[in-house]
Target: DUF1003 domain-containing protein
Amino acid sequence: MNTKTPPSTAAPADTPAQSSARDLDPIGQNIESILAFYLDEEQHITRSQRTLETISGSLGRPLYLGAIVLFVVLWILANVWLHQLGFATVDPPPFPWLQGIVGLGAFLTMIVVLIKQNRLAKLEERRTYLELQVNLLTEQKTTKLINLIEELRRDLPIKDRHDPEATAYQQPTDPKSVLAALDERLATGERAPDLTENKKKESE
Model:
């Protein structure tokens, strides 16, 4: 009795064309890198932090504002109505209990928002540090390419001309000197020229 083997359910391997197409897609690679960065940050969020940020997200919606206004209006109307009918009121005017509840709610809301802002500030600091590292690495690669092109130009059997701009670009950028020059300009109050004003003057 012949037995038929079941068809294989394994996923087909990527062809060389598909792999090369994926490698030649810089936009897709950049998006995957950015998503991986944020997914890594999400994995480090604790359960309590996630709960507080969920609450913070709900506090920033118009529905929350409407609920607060509705609560305050109903509280005032109920106490005024009970007072006019001669019944004992829970919070007579000037409504000290209402003021305490609203103040406590505002204090808790501020704490929840600050907790989320602190985490976002740390995330922004890491992202800024990453951008700085990438920019410095890009500058180093660009300097290396300029040096290689200059070496190739000198080795080619053509007239060797002096290019002062290329010579200046061959020198790697020193971040300390750039920051020192920036601090010096900021200390003297020097500002960058307004490009919009310059364009208006040129058009006139």
In short: Residues 96-155 form the longest helix (60 residues). The chain has eight helices and no strands.
